[in-house]
Fold:
Amino acid sequence: MTYRRWARPAGVLSVVLLLVADVILSVFMLKRDGAPAGDVTAKRVVARTTTASHPSAVPARSAERRPAPTTTRAASSPASSPTASSPRPPTSASGRSAPPTSRSMGSGGAPIAGGADALNSLAALDVQATYDAGGFDPGAFGPAVVPELTTCGSANAVLRRDLSRAIIDPGGCVVRAGVLTDPYTGTSVTFRPGAGSGIALDHVVSLRDAWESGASRWTAAERAAFARDSLNLLAVSSGTETSRAGRSSTDWLPPAQGYRCAYVARQIAVKTKYHLTVTGAESAADFRVLLRCGLQTLPAR
Structure:
């Protein structure tokens, strides 16, 4: 009997405490959500009273619903959009051992975009594992291009481009004298037309290299145009041209390290223009040089 006398007051006290707690909670919700305090409090008081009076009853769920949280997504901007991936290093197509399949070039090769990124252009070249077209003959590219020519043509165009303090004839074409700073060595050479001028015109992509990487399939006129393209010709000292002996960047680089980036870029420009291939070793050698160059672009002429 004692238990029954004290159980009810304890139960009533619990209900009162719950009601007080609910009022406090309602005030808090009002301040946070801005809901009408009277409606929220009344509905919750009814729910608590019903539960206390009838323990078996399911608590009434308040009709109040909190607004669904809204998420604002920032609009994507060009600055945050993914950019093109960095140029990957060229890889050798080790499974391709067939000879180059360079297409016909026409009379002047394909247009070359001066200022194009050298690494991207290198990666776009076709790679052959190994090739040897055989039957190379320098005569297949026409007469040799020498700097002593007195006619207006590729040789004098190269001299006008590469020589400083050039003296040009009244016709504005033939170079009569000038000073060359050899790009391969950095040494200065004084030029005067005639035997023993000390200057040679070097094919950056040698005629043998061109023959083996696609030119063997060209017509005689296409090979002659290639041999006279000023993009592929550099005025250098005669001794340097001889020591290079037509080797590619796989086996030879200019002694002047500051010129190596421009040298490799010019080779890539020529091979891009004429759709010539590279070997896997040549591609890797060019890539190693260009990694030290920063942003290296292709020459336009």
Observations:
- Confidence is low (pLDDT under 50) at residues 1-9, 34-104.
- The longest strand covers residues 175-181.
- DSSP finds nine helices and seven strands in the chain.
- The CA atoms of residues 126 and 277 lie 5 Å apart.
